[in-house]
Write a structure and sequence with these properties.
The structure holds 2 protein chains of 2 kinds. Chain A is mainly alpha-helical. Chain A has helices at residues 2-12, 23-34, 39-50, 69-82, 87-98, 102-116, and strands spanning 19-22, 57-61. Classes of the chains: A mainly alpha, B alpha+beta.
């Protein structure tokens, strides 16, 4: 699991030249992080939601189509955090207020509605 | 025409989308994202640097600055001219309407320029299209007439006033990033130029959107170009995009002609399939290259194409380049984005600009946006049968398979539910799955 955390953290880190990434690896790493309800995983997911800037990555395979790479990470983080409840919901709520992306706002709002029910 | 005498004025600059020009369509240049009307679109020194755009049938005003010849008159002479009753200026048009006469006092500032003078065009044609117009400017002082310059312009005429860009920007707060124009609609110059040419003379919403779709390859933009933000501007700059960007571009193109098309996304639903006891579908797989591509620009893979209902045995191994839109178990991660035109008669048409598909008449509205609601494609009528069945779209799943040589019972159960879908998975044509209940589900936003 540490390897998956490290990998996701490396996507959020600044790079001198964009980091080459097969996006399938990013998605499966996010599956791993989301599937482990540890504090370390929660920290990674919150870090993704709070990330403000451009990912310095160069997708070399399996590029996400519908979303941008950052949106893809944030969509997965939102859905993973929604399952945890508690403080995570506050982070989703804050993200829903702040995001400029209509699509992510819809996903965040639906996560919150589901939790409230 | 007076020969041998210096004209009292010459043409210096022409502004179309000046501040307060109510008829002009506001345009941005994607290179700097600034409104092009911030400075005159035409100058005597540089010629035309930007096109102008109006809704068809407009009778707009333009701002023209004239210059007094440097060697002809002292400030005292200019005052004398003004006392003589001024000068009448107009232009005849070739390729489009001319400019109505305007009588002006020959007053200039200390540098010899008039203030911006509000001339009015003769009425523009009541049909959309692109005019390459040449104006021959004339000035008359008393009984003397002078040629004072020629200007050439590209004027785009839209079918209707452009729509608010908020929909295609995909931003919740465009004003925060400087893309609001005092609440006025705007579009990009290249987009309005393309759509005015492609949809020339059309008025009906659907006819306009159809024409835009069919002419997309002429834009030179490609499918499968990696972008950071999936924005229309980025797409213009880098020459293409993926479906998220293409659907916005298509909205922007339709909006430039005053037509609204919706942007809808369906998301891969990777879940445990009850009947198969396997997780599927892992990905949407597309074998078409997309706009301006003959084939997908991704690496080849060996695919195992099957039919539905899948018998566990019959697969065709096939090596090809295909795009893979990966899902993720029980989450919305990826899928595909399309556009929908809803008409006043209640009909709905689907357009897929990424693969130049459409118009496809939907026999029922697409599902409402709900990231948590799984929708069976069997309930979506022509979306499944006519759209998903109209191109090389597959669903990839690690389905229970007998060995190739065996005719024995099909293995079931979650032996390796995630497996390696690319190596072990079976690709089933989406159009074959579509009519079968519980065979294919998507989430919709």
């Amino acid at each position: 699991m540490a390897a998956e955390h490290d990998f996701i953290n490396s996507l959020l880190a600044p790079h001198v030249t964009p980091k080459p990434v097969d996006w399938r690896r990013a998605t499966t790493a996010m599956d791993g992080v989301a599937g482990t309800q540890s504090e370390a995983s929660r920290e990674v997911l919150l870090k993704i939601l709070r990330f403000d800037g451009d990912l310095q990555v160069r997708v070399i395979a399996n590029h996400p189509h519908l979303l941008t790479p950052l949106e893809s990470l944030q969509a997965q983080a939102l859905q993973a955090l929604a399952a945890w409840g508690g403080e995570s919901c506050a982070a989703i709520e804050e993200f829903a207020e702040r995001t400029e992306s209509e699509t992510l706002e819809v996903i965040a709002s639906s996560c919150l509605i589901r939790r409230r029910r | 025409m007076t020969q041998g005498r210096t004209a009292p004025v010459s043409l210096y600059s022409i502004a179309f989308a000046f501040d307060g020009a109510g008829d002009a369509i506001l345009l941005r240049d994607e290179r700097d994202d600034l409104l092009v009307g911030g400075t005159p679109e035409w100058t005597a020194a540089a010629g035309s640097r930007a096109l102008a755009a109006y809704a068809r049938g407009a009778k707009p005003a333009i701002h023209v600055v004239l210059a007094r010849p440097r060697n002809s008159a002292s400030p005292g002479d200019r005052e004398a001219d003004a006392l003589e009753g001024g000068c009448t200026v107009w232009a005849t048009g070739a390729g489009g309407p001319g400019i109505e006469p305007l009588t002006i006092p020959l007053q200039a500032d200390a540098e010899g320029f008039t203030p911006p003078l509000a001339f009015r065009l003769e009425r523009l044609p009541d049909a959309s299209g692109v005019l390459d117009v040449s104006w021959s400017w004339r000035a008359r002082v008393g009984s003397e007439e002078f040629a004072i310059g020629t200007s050439k312009h590209k004027i785009c005429l839209t079918a209707g006033r452009p729509r608010d860009p908020a929909a295609w920007l995909g931003l919740r707060h465009p004003e925060r990033v400087g893309l609001d124009a005092k609440g006025l609609p705007w579009t990009y110059s290249r987009i309005v130029e393309w759509t005015c040419e492609w949809a020339a003379g059309l008025e009906d919403d659907k006819a306009i959107v159809d024409a835009i779709l069919w002419h997309l390859p002429r834009s030179g933009l490609k499918y499968a170009v990696h972008l950071e933000h999936n924005s229309v501007r980025e797409m213009l700059f880098w020459g293409g995009g993926f479906c998220g960007a293409w659907a916005r571009m298509f909205q922007a193109m339709a909006a430039s002609q005053g037509v609204f098309v919706e942007r809808r996304s369906f998301w891969v639903d990777w879940r445990l399939h009850r009947a198969l006891e396997r997780e599927c579908w892992c990905a949407l797989v597309i074998g078409e290259g997309g706009v301006n591509r003959t084939e997908p620009n991704w690496d080849s893979n060996t695919w195992h194409d099957g039919d539905w209902p899948f018998d566990g045995k019959t697969v065709r191994d096939f090596t090809a380049k295909r795009y893979v839109f990966w899902g993720s178990p029980n989450k919305l991660v990826d899928g595909h984005t399309i556009n929908v035109l809803s008409r006043s008669d209640g009909s709905h048409y689907l357009y897929d600009p990424s693969f130049v598909l459409g118009p496809i008449l939907l026999d029922r509205p697409l599902p409402a946006s709900d990231p948590k609601k799984r929708v069976d494609v069997a309930d979506l009528g022509t979306f499944g049968t006519h759209y998903l069945g109209s191109y090389e779209a597959y669903l990839l799943g690690v389905l229970p398979r007998a060995s190739h040589a065996s005719a024995g019972p099909v293995a079931k159960g979650p032996a390796h539910p995630r497996g390696d879908p690319l190596a072990d998975g079976v690709t089933i044509p989406a159009g074959r799955l579509a009519p079968h209940r519980d065979a294919l589900t998507f989430f919709w936003t």
